[in-house]
Inverse folding.
């Protein structure tokens, strides 16, 4: 049961979705619904997902710029 409470429910394929999930985890920790230690782990995973999404965004922008300049 405890493992299920920690699971992230929604698809996190946008920065907005990751931000919303971070807020949901924060509220659950503040309400005492999940332990601080578990919330910390979830925040770490969400932070890593944010960094990956940022890197993917920057990579796509860089590719677009490179293709635009070579044309």
């Amino acid at each position: 049961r405890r493992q299920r409470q920690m699971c992230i429910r929604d698809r996190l394929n946008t920065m907005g979705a990751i931000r919303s999930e971070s807020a949901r985890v924060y509220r659950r920790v503040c309400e005492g619904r999940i332990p601080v230690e578990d919330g910390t782990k979830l925040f770490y995973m969400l932070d890593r997902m944010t960094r990956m999404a940022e890197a993917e965004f920057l990579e796509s922008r860089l590719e677009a710029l490179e293709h635009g300049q070579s044309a």
